[in-house]
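seq/struct pair 1
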Amino acid sequence: MKPFNGLLLLVIITFSSYHLKNNNQKLKEYFSIPAVAYNKTTYQLSWSAHPADNYYKQEYLPAGEKPETYSHMIMIEAVTGDISLKDAVRAKINELEQRKKTDPTVNYQVIENKTTGEYLLDFVISQSAGNAAAVTEWNTYRYLKLKDKSGKKGIQLFAFSKRGYGGGTTNFLQHLKTERQKDINIFAAYEIPEVNIKAQ
């Protein structure tokens, strides 16, 4: 497989948790992170992918949750190569701006950490079924430079996602309105696990 160019890397790293899963794919652990302890909950590796030579993605769920109906999820992604954090964030924002044309739920904010160079992006999206919102999703992404022990350079993404479904989306959004900043503060202060890409 040929390496993706810089533009395609930006497209890849904008993926949210709305994606198709290959249930026949053997689960592989690429980052030496089999589980994530976050905010008093343990998230176990539930899905992984290596769709390009320089792109890796892993998803983690609490015990008992399924990818199609999850309420909370952790995502970790890594892209190796020459790509800036600012360009990756800008690509995601462009995606969200395009989505606004068909998804009135979309809203977002970006916070830059001047000390570390990290960016934090939090946003809300929804997926409709007829005139009702079937799924409403809130995500927080932290974009930071990859710190792989083998010397690989690139971008690491650490993300937290929450969902509300069907008739529960109203309560989900009301809860989000009062708890969003608190959740952002917890996420921003969290010590992100170090990604070390395993040799394949």
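seq/struct pair 2
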Amino acid sequence: MKPSLLVLAAGIGSRYGGFKQIDPIGPNGEVLLDYAIYDARKAGFGKIVFVITRALEKGLKDYIRGKYGNSLEVEFVFQDMDKIPAGYSVPADRKKPWGTGHAVLVAKEALREPFGVINADDYYGSTSYQVLADFLKKIDPNSRQMTLVGFAIENTLSDNGTVSRGVCTIEKGKLVSIVEREKIRQEGDSICHQTEDGTKLIIPQGTLVSMNLWGFAPGVLFPWFEKQFEQFMKSRGTELKSEFYLPSAVDAGIRAGEMTVEVLSSKESWFGLTYNEDKPVVREHILRKIKAAVYPGNLFA
């Protein structure tokens, strides 16, 4: 059974200024997603499931079908705000989706096999997909064993602004906890994050962080996420900007003994499209990969 890949592509790109999911990056009009698909298929992933919004539907579907035709097994699911537990309602003035945990949950009906999760606007590197695929090929759909492919924090920073990262605590190769840290940036030789009260704290180099490169077994994960999302709606569902985060739901599962998460380490350098100013940097990274023969000059030649 080939593992599937779930691509979180419903972001509205407010900081980027447009739909970065289909913004050309490669020398022949390739988008960043094309390199993820190339790496995933090479590593042994089968079906690709995209979580999208209605606003992006036509653009992304047209792009994927135009580039891949019938050569790619693909499914699209929508992260609609009204996909919530019975008895709850969407606040009238809410405009944001419910977050990455909800994005995973809406794909429940499309996934029966172990699956990986990625962000559509992130580059993880070919070896990262291989490490993830090798793990997923060994587990059962009902396994309690999940995985996270972590990146050294110094390999995940942006030159164009601060970032948020899920900082991992690991013991004997297992994830103990994951805590979201905001406003992280390089300052001289140090990597700092700023707390809510303005205090700056140093994060040591080599600290593994989550870039939302996960591996899950659906039989355990989805029932747990359903339970957690209902609790979230009960406590925070009336808030206009609250989000049900994937790392928080996993963290709760670890603490409750519902799952264990093996942490695998990637030696790759992450890069991605957070700000529009990132685009030329990402293009340069891709050109370097092509020159190093990691990718062909034209993915669709």
